[in-house]
């Protein structure tokens, strides 16, 4: 009995010692796992944030360039540009989506001898207070800011000579030489040099050339951008305060800061978390350096709670296994049976859930195959199937090919989300303007089609098209906070013929639609023999 008691005590103390050993090993493993996970999590976030930030900066600058190009084309199309024309054209540019932008400027060049004439010319065209201030240049060439629209609420006087600033002069000459978008080196804008030094920040100037009709050079359209404001706004939008960053450019052997937004970088962290990316914009290359903030490190540490829980559960499982080894054979068997039963039940439930999701996904895919995901209208595949059923079989059909006018400018000014809103609202207008048996489809972009399935004649089809335009005019679309835009569209009409194919019917409607655009947009045109001859003799006008 004494021997059995000794053996029992020995087994008990051996088990306790084993439990303690496993607990210490588990604790050490948990600590190591926490540290590894924390560093990997922070590194992963830094990679994602840095990639998103570099792409966002590139996208923002390119978007500014596209906007400048569009406005430059509109200005160049004016035969006799006045200050009022410039104000009207630039009034469509919203500063809500231009972080860091200071002003939009029209710049024209002249020589020493032409300064007085240029000043007099523009005073006659509405810029009565314009006073040109030529800088001293080696070649006697000047580039004056003639007209200006301020974005930051500060009064920015026109008349400054951009050729007096080497960085701005270089960007203007590069833009004219390349015939396109150029970015200057970083410098303090002339209009900011009157501010206290503590309020001055490095900026850069974007420039595109302006050409009159006939490709005659007129001047430049430029925009000043505060580097710090652009970087901090983009940082907040992309990383939500988790990452700090600086933007640099190399000027020969000297590295210059374009924008600094690293004041809140963490004080102590592994330098392996720093990230560097190259951003190429036009002919200029910037270096983006990103650093973690205390917020990111804190988030990484807080995120370890889940890992700690999983490690603790693993240790508990090991301890449970040790306790289970001391239990009776019957209890072990019953536990295994219960576990197997629960696992089987869970497996059956998971299979049923998977089958339910698969059936739902199959129904959703069937719907998506024939419908446009944005507007809910029939897509090209659904339209093609309906055309194949009707075209060549029934002449009581008509095809309306619809293209929105000025849609690209809506995207540029208000953003793609606003563009999607306009497309969705126009789809609703189309559905309200046609019969229940007609097919309303979106081909993609801003192109729509209405297939009228029972129309007695061409006049009925034209009436339907005009009803659509009237419905659009009566229901302006709200974009942004308070901007209402009336949807305008060009519609081409083609009626069915017995010898038609779907492609032929679509082609005739396409010719009529482009003719409607050519005649002034927001109208309806019907395809006929004269239009067909015109199509073979003249190319389609460009979509705007």
What does this structure look like?
This protein is of the alpha+beta class and 544 residues long. Helix 1 (2-76) crosses helix 5. The model is unreliable at 536-544 (pLDDT under 50). The chain has a 5-stranded antiparallel β-sheet, sandwiched between helices. 33% of the residues are buried. It has helices spanning 2-76, 83-90, 115-124, 166-178, 227-239, 294-302, 304-326, 329-369, 380-390, 407-414, 416-433, 458-474, 502-518, 529-537; strands at 101-111, 141-150, 182-183, 203-212, 216-226, 243-251, 254-261, 275-281, 284-292, 398-404, 439-444, 447-452, 477-479, 483-485, 489-495, 524-526. It contains 14 helices and 16 strands. The chain has 3 domains: 32-325, 2-Layer Sandwich (Beta-Lactamase), CATH 3.30.450.350; 327-366; 380-537, Alpha-Beta Plaits, CATH 3.30.70. The longest helix is centred in the first third of the chain and has 75 residues, at 2-76. Pfam families: CHASE, GGDEF. One of its GO terms (molecular function) is catalytic activity. It is found in: Membrane. It comes from Actinoplanes regularis. This is Diguanylate cyclase (GGDEF) domain-containing protein.
Task: Please summarize what this structure is.
50% of the residues lie in helices and 21% in strands.
